Amino acid sequence: MQPAISAKGISKSFRTGFFKPRKQVLHAVDLEVAPGAIFGILGPNGAGKTTFISILATLLRPDGGQAQVLGLDVLKDPGRLRERVNLAASGAHFLWCLTVEENLRFYGRLYGLGGRTLVAKVEELLELFELQPHRRVTFERLSTGLKQRLALAKALINNPELLFLDEPTTGLDPEMSRHLRGEILRLNRDKGLTILLTTHNLREAEQLCGEVAFLKEGRMLARGTIPQLQERLGLGDHVSLVFRDGPAPLDYAQLPGVLTFNLENNRVDLRVDRGEERLAAILEAVSRTQSQVVQVRLQEVDLAEIYHEITL
Amino acid sequence: MRLPSDFHKIYAYAVRSALVNRRNVFAVFEMLFWPGVAIFSVGLLTRFLKLDPETVTFILIGAVSMNTIQIAQLDLSYALLYSVWAKSLKHEFMAPVGLAHILVGSGLVGLIRGFLVFVLMGLLSMWLFNMDLGPPGTWGLLIFLAGMFLNAAIIGALVLALVLRFGQRAEVAAWAFSYLMLLLCGLYYPVSVLPPGVRELAQFIPLTYFLEYFRHFYGFPQASSHPLLYGFSQSVIYLGLCYGLVQYTLRSALQRGTLLRLSE
Q1: pLDDT digits (tens, 9 = 90+) for B25-61
Q2: Which residue intervals of chain A bear CATH 3.40.50.300?
Q3: Per-residue model confidence (pLDDT) at position A305
Q4: SS3 sequence, A223-244?
Q5: Sheet holding A85-89, edge to edge
Q6: What's A236-311's CATH class?
Q7: What is the mean pLDDT of residues B195-216?
Q8: pLDDT over 70 at B174, yes or no
Q9: pLDDT value, residue A22
Q10: Higher pLDDT, A90 or A218
């Protein structure tokens, strides 16, 4: 199956001033995203996430490399590509004196919609994002949450096959962020939309993305599903055992799947590869020593640890 | 070319421009207050100087032209400035729109506003200062209007290129360009009174020829043998060059990241 996004060796630099050296923002970045996936690009501020997504969205020309989105070359066929993709970014910005409805109509027309098709599409989006009560409110009078909802509504005006979301929940309160994440998941599930999103919110990436890639200082450091990355980095799950009378006399390093361990008073903290599968064997080994375990905790490795491991 | 789709894209910019003008109190000032002030001040000055009717007409034609062009070019000049101010430039260029859609859509509203200013100022000049718009006839008036709108389009396209290159800093150019052009083309005076060196520059401004053409109906001599030929030829060449320049700056903006910077 043809990938929805295929980028090879994308590089980009910007001039920082006269007689100053150019700043390299992206270094030969590769990426492949399957159709229908939600793919997350993670990285700290200044990592090059927005630059990369802007190149794929045809808003920026790369210095080198090749990129195809939905089978279309971003440099050779930007016009046709723009008809099939759309973008929503953090800090929604639209013309201040146009109402919610007028802004949607304006963008609808830019995608060639008119007449009843436009009216029906605008109504559908107003309903989908619960914007009907605010349809006649000018953009400048909307709350941040409503502005972001309008941004997402605008991004769907052309029924895109692929959506670029550049830090879509930045600046939103937790409730609104949760709501928007729900919408993003629903769009992916119901409409089969491929979504490429950038974020530095790890919880968001964990909730939304089937696969992630880490970008730092313009270099793609790692990519994969969370279990794949965990395995590749040797990051196991946390297994914590608390004993009644001191730790069991065991060579913990020899227990199945144990990557590292730490003894502290009555507690033993183990880092275990595929902890859920190995827990029974570990407990069995402990029980053979007659030591009494009073508490067992299993915690899966989370994205924050992977992020920490990769980017720091 | 897909006509219905292109029509909607052009219509998008026309509606947007019309809505912004309708909701902007300064747009009313631009169309009523300043043109009114211009006609009154220039007309009263000619009365104070006790000028003969022909000279009064000569000067009033200049005042009408200046305001008509100024208003007509604004919608075009502001087409991208609105987006820069709103920081929505990247969303617009994310859509499959071309420069032609922006230029034609916004230009149409500018043309209507410019025409209304021309009518308003023409009526005021006739009513208050006995200027007679009869001699050129309908065709003469239409040709003169077409010439003014072409000049407005050239200025507007130049400002668009500057906005794409320099962003908000180009805002001042929206006004400055037209004033500079109007200064050189012999707006309130014959080109012959311009100092040597500057006078030659006037030959390269199409409006010089359209003013000359229009004024000849009032008995003023034509300096060139075929003013309309020169005026329209130069206008078409400049428009083509400006369109190419805007295309080039857009391409350069995509390379330099200007669209993204202007949307932050």
Answers
A1: 888 888 888 889 999 999 999 999 999 888 899 999 9
A2: 5-230
A3: 74
A4: EECHHHHHHHCCCCEEEEEEEC
A5: A85-89, A162-166, A194-199, A38-42, A211-216, A219-224
A6: alpha beta
A7: 90
A8: no
A9: 84
A10: A218
The residue type of A126 is L
Please report the pLDDT score of residue A59 as a whole number. 93
Report the CATH superfamily, name and number, of domain A5-230.
P-loop containing nucleotide triphosphate hydrolases (3.40.50.300)
What is the phi/psi pair of residue B87, to 5°?
A: 60, 35
Which residue of B87, B95, B256 is in closest CB contact with A110? B95
Helix, strand, coil shares of chain A, percent, nearest 5, are 35, 30, 35
Q: What whole-number distance in Å separates Cα of residue B247 and Cα of residue B9?
A: 18
Which of B8, B10, B25, B94 would you mutate first to test chain A, the one with the most A CBs within 10 A? B94
- Answer whether B95 touches A (CB < 8 Å): yes
Q: Which residues of A touch B91 (CB under 8 A)?
A: 87, 93-94, 107, 154
Q: Higher confidence at residue A224 or residue A132? A: A132
Q: What integer pLDDT is reported at residue B3 of this predicted model? A: 63
Record: contact A86-B23, CB cut-off 8 A: no
What's the pLDDT at B1?
52
Name which of B1, B20, B91 is nearest A158 in CA terms. Answer: B91
Q: Which of A78, A86, A110, A88 is nearest to A162 (CA)?
A: A86
* Residue A312 banded pLDDT, cuts 50, 70, 90: low
Q: Which strand (E) or helix (H) includes residue A296?
A: strand A293-299
Report residue A27 as tokens: 């270094």
Residue range(s) in chain A whose domain bears CATH number 3.30.70: 236-311
DSSP string, A122-159: HHHHHHHTT-GGGTTSBGGGS-HHHHHHHHHHHHTTT-
ipTM score here?
0.88
* Mean local confidence (pLDDT), A92-114: 94
Please count the CA atoms within 13 angstroms of the CA of A310 that sit on its side-chain side.
29
Q: Do A111 and B20 touch (CB under 8 A)?
A: no
pLDDT score at A277: 82
**In whole angstroms, what is the distance from residue B130 CA to residue B46 CA?**
12
Task: Retrieve residue A217's tokens.
Answer: 């200082």
Quote the pTM value: 0.84
Per the CB < 8 A criterion, the answer to whether B260 and A25 are in contact is no
